[in-house]
């Protein structure tokens, strides 16, 4: 007996010794440093537009209504909400692993052993009551409860639960990132729709202007003051502009359908403001300081939480090298006749055991999983650093873009004013035969292109402001 105990003790110590040789962790910390400012002209003001709720940032009631509808019906957002539910259920599963597992069991069976076996010979001479032998076909009735519990000595299960909680929080930040992108995409598409409406109005006005010029050319041709070539050139220009009208109409339909897709509904007309886009003033955006991106941007917070979860995964994988401690127990009743099940304590059964288990020889699979966890942690570090870098570059690019678009818009406005005056002048000179039809034609064409480009620049201004608001981390609150 003493030798058996010594052998068990030696095996247990050997198990502990071989299991406790833990591999070294790969140490690498993420770089959280960001520049002090987005541009050399920044004053260091910490006021940040990202803290504004999207309802305060967007004031157009039509746009607000569209965003409200999208938040209720957008399929991508609903998919993300289910990912949050999956992460929440994973926490419950990890929590369950920390608690004892208890299961009930009931069974019935039959057994007949050979008479000329040791068990059969013994049963033949056994009497439960005087004059009665054990039945040849022996029934077995059993009802009981069994429990198993792994004692979390090395915090493997607790770290797995913490990782699940961290990923749950990460999924919430993922939902916030979908929200801010959804709000920004609807706003950008809405302003694109307003721009197309304004361009359509300009094209229609230009068609009327060109048709008026065409009528004048036809009159002059009848008076032999110009040629048929001039008439054909003006007619071709009218047809070109009319075809442009249908291109814009198709772009309007495509943009409406894109918005309807974001709203999770079948195509229908998008209600919107009828005012000219040129009369809409872009909102002022305060960028704050770059370090605020770490707090405001959902994708940065999501990457940070994924990194924290990856670090916990390493601890879980490392604990696999250590022995695990378990307890199992059972309690119930068992007999070969149903009436004997209620006889206590003869039908009582119980068991209680503790076990110690751990890897001894082949640890390749465990080591491979540990190495994978290390690699995933390094991936998470690089992903976090890339996310921070991308966020800073996006904001810096939009800050520069807004400034350059404003300067370009001012110059294009002056160009449009000059060309608009040039149309009137060229028409007067053409009527008095002081310029030919080609100059009138080119002036009208240049004016149309300049006005369309002005609308396009205005749309880019509005979208740059929306993008900057999103890139700063606004839109999900």
General description of the model:
This protein is an alpha+beta fold. It folds into two domains: 19-98 and 155-323 and 365-471, Outer membrane efflux proteins (OEP) (Up-down Bundle), CATH 1.20.1600; 100-123 and 134-151 and 326-357, Outer membrane efflux proteins (OEP) (Single Sheet), CATH 2.20.200. The chain has eleven helices and four strands; from the N terminus they run H-H-H-H-E-H-E-H-H-H-H-E-E-H-H. Strands 1-2-3-4 form a four-stranded antiparallel beta sheet.
The gist of it:
This protein has helices at 2-19, 54-57, 61-73, 75-98, 118-124, 156-222, 228-262, 293-296, 298-319, 364-431, 437-471, and strands at 101-111, 138-151, 324-335, 348-357. It is of the alpha+beta class.
Number of strands: 4
Strand content: 5-15%
Amount of helix? 55-70%
Q: At the third CATH level, what is the topology name of the largest domain?
A: Outer membrane efflux proteins (OEP)
The major pleated sheet works out as: 4 strands, antiparallel
- Secondary-structure arrangement, i.e. CATH architecture of the largest domain: Up-down Bundle
> Outline, from the CA principal axes?
elongated
What integer is the average pLDDT?
87
Low-pLDDT runs: 1-5, 7-11
| Count of discrete domains | 2
What is the CATH H-level superfamily of the largest domain?
Answer: Outer membrane efflux proteins (OEP)
CATH class of the largest domain, please? Answer: Mainly Alpha
> Major sheet: order of its strands?
1-2-3-4
Number of helices: 11
Question: Radius of gyration over alpha carbons?
Answer: 40 Å
Amino- and carboxy-terminal Cα gap = 70 Å
Helix-strand pattern: HHHHEHEHHHHEEHH
């Amino acid at each position: 007996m003493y030798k058996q105990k010594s052998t068990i003790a030696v095996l247990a110590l050997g198990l502990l010794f071989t299991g406790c040789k833990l591999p070294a962790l790969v140490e690498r910390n993420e770089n959280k440093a960001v520049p002090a400012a987005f541009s050399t002209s920044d004053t260091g003001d910490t006021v940040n537009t990202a803290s504004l709720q999207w309802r305060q940032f967007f004031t157009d009631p039509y746009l607000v209504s569209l965003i409200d509808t999208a938040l209720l019906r957008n399929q991508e957002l609903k998919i993300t909400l289910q990912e949050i539910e999956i992460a929440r259920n994973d926490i419950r599963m990890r929590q369950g692993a920390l608690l004892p597992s208890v299961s009930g069991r009931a069974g019935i069976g039959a057994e007949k052993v050979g008479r000329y076996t040791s068990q059969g010979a013994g049963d033949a001479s056994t009497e439960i009551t005087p004059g009665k032998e054990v039945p040849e076909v022996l029934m077995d009735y059993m009802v009981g409860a069994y429990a198993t519990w792994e004692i979390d000595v090395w915090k493997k299960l607790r770290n797995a639960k913490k990782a699940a909680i961290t990923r749950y929080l990460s999924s919430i930040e993922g939902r916030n990132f979908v929200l801010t992108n959804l709000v920004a995409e609807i706003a950008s598409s809405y302003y694109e729709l307003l721009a197309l409406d304004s361009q359509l109005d300009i094209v229609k006005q230009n068609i009327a202007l060109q048709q008026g010029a065409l009528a004048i050319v036809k009159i002059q041709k009848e008076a032999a003051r110009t040629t048929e070539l001039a008439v054909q050139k003006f007619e071709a220009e009218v047809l070109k502009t009319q075809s442009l009208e249908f291109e814009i109409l198709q772009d309007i339909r495509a943009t409406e359908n894109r918005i309807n897709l974001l709203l999770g509904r079948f195509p229908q007309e998008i209600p919107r403001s009828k005012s000219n886009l040129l009369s809409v003033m872009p909102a002022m955006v305060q960028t704050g300081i770059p370090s605020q991106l770490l707090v405001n941007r959902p994708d940065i917070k999501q990457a940070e939480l994924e990194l924290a979860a990856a670090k916990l995964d390493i601890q879980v994988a490392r604990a696999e090298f250590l022995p695990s401690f378990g307890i199992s127990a059972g309690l119930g009743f068992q007999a070969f006749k149903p009436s004997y099940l209620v006889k206590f304590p003869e039908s009582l059964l119980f068991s209680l055991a503790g076990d110690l288990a751990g890897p001894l020889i082949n640890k390749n699979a465990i080591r491979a999983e540990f190495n994978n966890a290390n690699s995933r942690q390094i991936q998470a570090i690089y992903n976090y650093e890339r996310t921070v870098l991308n966020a800073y570059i996006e904001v810096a690019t939009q800050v520069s873009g807004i400034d350059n678009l404003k300067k370009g818009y001012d110059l294009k406005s002056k160009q449009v004013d000059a060309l608009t005056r040039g149309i009137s002048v060229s028409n007067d000179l053409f009527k008095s035969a002081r310029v030919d039809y080609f100059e009138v034609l080119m002036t009208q064409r240049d004016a149309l292109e300049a006005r369309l480009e002005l609308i396009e620049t205005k749309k880019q201004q509005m979208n740059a402001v929306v993008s900057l608001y999103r890139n700063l981390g606004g839109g999900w609150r």
